[in-house]
Design brief:
elongated; mainly alpha
Length: 73
């Protein structure tokens, strides 16, 4: 293993940890909203080009739930 690989692994691990922390924060903020606002958030994300998979990753909401709550075009 080279030092470059070790550095890349460390950066990757850090990036994953930061993304995980951000996703937990996103989920807490999402959960704190009333159901009507949650639906609006999901719809706006989808309408602005975010994939259902990415919305699911960021909010922690199951993809099937997202499809149920949005009007997919």
């Amino acid at each position: 293993m080279t030092s470059t690989t070790t550095i890349q692994d460390a950066v990757s691990t850090l990036a994953s940890a930061l993304e995980s922390s951000q996703n937990k924060y996103n989920r807490a903020m999402f959960d704190a909203q009333p159901a009507s606002i949650q639906k609006e958030i999901l719809q706006n994300c989808y309408n602005n080009g975010m994939s259902v998979k990415k919305i699911s990753q960021m909010t922690g909401v199951a993809t099937s739930t997202i499809y149920t709550k949005i009007k997919a075009k």
